[in-house]
Amino acid sequence: MPTLACLIAPMADGLIKKVIFADGGSTDITADIAEETGASFVSTPKGRGMQCKIGVIFAIQSDWLLFLHDDSQLSNDWGNEVASFVRNPSNINKCAYFKLALDDSSIKAKIVAWGANMRCKIFALPYGDQGLLISRKLYEEIGGFGTMPLMEDVDIIERIKTKIGKQNLIMLKAVLTTSADKYKDGYAKRVWRNFKYLRAYKNGTDPKEIAESYYK
Predict the structure, then answer these.
(1) Into how many domains does the chain fold?
(2) CB 70 within 8 A of CB 3
(3) What is the pTM of this model?
């Protein structure tokens, strides 16, 4: 599991106190992997918002929280960047996320990643596949992740920006490479689909209705 491999060295160095697998009903060997590596395995209802929300409950000794999807692979410099960020007292009311890349060397993949990073710079709107680094203090002040079945990342980012301003939502230089499998039906088609669902959410469509269409 590439995500876990990225976390092992920082665990040994003490940067990461605890790794929690918030599992929404997988049937693979995730639980066995967690046990073998000393991570915690938490079984939750399906839905990333609910998974993140429950996972935080088990991170009771952590002053900082780092949320990652399970297809994330971080560049080698991520540990130093995160350590520098969390050890700066002035960042207690700031959040961070990673620069996005896709595990596909095609020009289409690079364009999509570039577009996502530009979206973040212009609109301060990272999605969940770019990770989220947030202090427990700020996380609790904004009410944490919602339990909606989709758009949980957009929801929490909007509440973060309302609380601290978009200028305090920082893109780190470290790169998070995520799986391109979600684009298997075509990059343009997927980008348009994401935009359509985002627009529907912004216009007040119930996330449950969006999720039914998204996962169809």
Answers:
(1) 1
(2) yes
(3) 0.93
